[in-house]
Amino acid sequence: MGTKEQLKEERDRIVKGLEETYRKLVIFKKSKKSPMIVVRNGKIVEVDANEILPTTSYKRSAGTLPNS
Description:
Layout: H1 3-32, E1 36-40, E2 43-47
Antiparallel strand pairs: 1-2
């Protein structure tokens, strides 16, 4: 397996871990009835955790990493 493949596998594992962490955070915030603090359009805002989906997908923009 080449370096590129290894980096892709590692990146995929990191992304899955971040998605799982986000899912657990939303569940925790809902259980505590605590708002999520997020950045929307460059501003910090509170969002009711019940308005947030417990899943999200990582979407990488084109050109964010060299040689991707």
